[in-house]
């Protein structure tokens, strides 16, 4: 707030306050001289004396505001106020009631001359976008002034001027000195404040003095009427102040009436203060809600509030506590008045011609105070002659306001609806707009948005600073409930049922609208997503901008999936909101000029989704805080179990974690330790260890127990780990020599004291979550803080520590939940080790932060035990690799898997034959996904129909790994040039999104090599089809260049596996692996390592030649080598490093 505007506020504040101090001294004094029942005449007389000068001197006030500098007029009026208050002090001293009313008339004259200059000065010292806010502050300070003046005036009367005997009023038994000193001092300070207002120029220095006030008034009114909008706004302002004047008079009658509140005169002040406080709050809200512009949509809302509150005040004597009801309704009435008046005043100042602003404001004042005079006289008639009681007057006021509200709504329905939507967005939704500056300020443009919910279009209208024409299906747009709304917003209906010609006609209308300079929006998916994923775009959208030169603006709506207007869970509306208010983001991307194809626009919208998720991460709750909430929500429901027989409810899981945390903090982990090692298989104990370390705000590092000791110690050294949590039982089976102290869970368990149990129990069961979070320090965790370090399997080299943040893992879980609809009735079988990112994110933290129960088993190859666990616990979700699925297929029965309805497969390619066999036996098709440790790990997935709800949308494609996860983006580039490739072309797959790792531990160069501008180089060769589905054709490192062709090892491996498959063999491990070794002639040579064969190599080669493999891809007979075992990692994936070494030993130059 500038110093000049502050001086202006102080000046007008003190003037308004002084007016009310003197008025509420004079009116109560005058009421002492009239008979009982005639008090309304005094109230009316006071109002008339104050109002009539505004009518009589309106032309002169306008002349002064236009002809001279408004600052000079204001300073002159403040000098006049000092003189008038001196006269007022004299009138109080001599005790002449008639003289007091003359002073009130002089005050009215001074205010009438002051008003146009005061209001006209605002746009001269305040920037255009801040006019609404400035008017809100003016309204607030005016109201505060009225409150203070009313209270002080009534108190001055009660303390110093209230004679017990009217005949002694002039006899000297009153004390006028204090009130006189107050009013003169306030006027003097106001004059000094006015001197600080900056100098401004005259608006119309050539204007002549209005010698004929009547003609001048008519001229001003004609000037006002030249703009119907300005005239309507002026009438609205007049209506507000007229109602306000009647309300102020009526409050006095209501408060002092014996049949109603029956208060003393000094108690009227607080009620007037409450009314005025409401006006102040409404004024401030109007300024804030206007959002830097003149927002007339608030006006009908304010009128509705006035009508309701005034009508409600008629019920005053129907309550046992009428004072409280009256105070509440007066506050609401005032709030409605503030909402109603501030936008009108801002519009009048902003839209009026600057050269005639003073005259227009003077004409507006003439209308306003004519209305005030009429309503004041009407009040006198109603109360005096017709004996209408105060509550009934409020009722009549409310009824009279209803037509005004309706008229305002029908004049500006669009603005009103926009305002209602805006209020919803601030209460039901919390909308964050990103990139609003990318919307063209002028000219046509096509907005292309994703479609998540039924309220998308409404929120877009709200987010745009310009009107938008929407394309919508005619069945919806022309339905009876929405027809008038569609007409108001000029919706372009699409009649798809009428055939292609009708669609082309609608697109042509959109094209013409863009060409005419309108903003047009199309939801290019054609329908609302049923899975939360971005669907393919309709190709016709580019016809809309073809030849117009208009840009395409990509738009992404984020966060709406899961709201009641989305199809999450397969249901629309009938679901409980997940949050209140619901966080929503609307991102406008940089305009695209003449995009080559729809895929370019699709990717731009997809990338905006990435940006929106990244920018909203501060508002997302980190996994450990979600863990506390889920444990409380599932307090009496089994949450985790394992094959050892342990089972914990949510409350017991939380209590055990907190108890474990206390022990670790007290006895093991030092404050200087950042990372803690965990060497445990997936089981309840491992869950407790990970959760406890995380609640300590330490980084849990699950070590890969399938590695050699040297590799484990390499990982320990990289992380600076001093302690490793494990168990004696595990170490007995897997002895290790580590460069860190081993802490055994069994030993810790024996050290639990009764105090530990009591404190952990109180924290878990009774302590409010907000206190528990602060006690644990969880509120200080940032989304980008590290949650874990997971070492890659080392399949192609030395293990690399992948740093994953809370945001990485949390966003991955949210994306999985978004498309698979994980519920509390789901039970997950956790067989993947926590040192694997799939097991850590999908098995551990998905369980801890969502609703399902999880059952863990330490050996993923033990299919018989896994089958029994699935049957016992009713497992519905399994996350596994194809290797482990083979074990299920051979060793589990359909009865054991009868509850299974979601099988997510990753880490390696799912052979179609395996998927078909699994579906045939267990009646559930494995859903293939894709990810890497560096992607936390999920990047893409198919969505089975049973989890997608009833929809015609394509949610899964066999042979693909699905679409990129919500909030992420995918693209394919040329391996040599790095250029983006089109649909269906094989290239290097890049992923961008919140799932991309923080980086490699202690390897910034390697991180920079694989992450460029937020895009992670997966090293996989893939293509993306028209529907956005990704097909992985192999790893770049698993291709050989032979005869100029890229030969994929994986495809050859799959064919050999199919040839060697034997139903009688229950071993699910791979039987062959393909590698490449140097070759002098061809550069590289394909070799096959295989376990003992049940058929001859010649038969294998014969079947390969009968397949669709090119001859160049078929290994020669002398390239087959039998080995005792195919090297595997702990996850069941091929150990590519070991395979390569073995191939070189057998076929290398030194073999």
Characteristic terms for this protein:
1151 residues; alpha/beta; Growth Hormone, Chain: A; Glycerol-3-phosphate (1)-acyltransferase; Rossmann fold; 4 domains; nine-stranded mixed β-sheet; seven-stranded mixed β-sheet; 38 helices; 33 strands; elongated
Q: What's the topology here?
A:
Blueprint: H1 3-31, H2 39-56, H3 58-67, H4 70-94, H5 97-125, H6 131-161, H7 177-194, H8 213-225, H9 228-256, H10 268-289, H11 298-313, H12 322-351, H13 357-385, H14 390-411, H15 413-427, E1 429-434, E2 445-449, H16 456-463, E3 468-473, H17 474-477, H18 480-488, E4 492-494, H19 500-515, E5 519-523, E6 552-558, E7 582-588, H20 598-615, H21 623-633, E8 638-642, E9 647-649, H22 650-668, E10 675-678, H23 684-695, E11 699-702, H24 709-719, E12 723-726, H25 728-733, E13 741-744, H26 745-750, H27 754-765, H28 769-776, E14 786-791, E15 801-805, H29 806-820, E16 827-830, H30 837-849, E17 853-856, H31 863-873, E18 877-880, H32 882-891, E19 902-905, H33 912-922, E20 927-931, E21 938-941, H34 945-948, E22 963-964, E23 969-973, E24 987-992, E25 999-1000, H35 1004-1010, E26 1011-1012, E27 1015-1024, E28 1030-1035, E29 1039-1042, E30 1045-1048, H36 1049-1060, E31 1072-1079, E32 1083-1090, H37 1097-1106, E33 1120-1122, H38 1136-1147
Parallel strand pairs: 1-7, 2-5, 2-6, 3-4, 3-5, 8-17, 10-11, 10-12, 12-13, 16-17, 16-18, 18-19, 19-20, 32-33
Antiparallel strand pairs: 6-7, 8-9, 14-15, 15-25, 20-21, 21-22, 23-24, 24-27, 26-27, 27-28, 29-30, 31-32
Helix pairs in contact: 1-2, 1-5, 1-6, 1-7, 2-5, 2-13, 3-5, 3-8, 3-13, 4-5, 4-7, 5-13, 6-10, 6-12, 8-13, 9-10, 9-12, 9-13, 9-14, 10-12, 11-12, 11-14, 11-15, 15-16, 21-22, 22-23, 22-27, 29-30, 31-32, 32-33
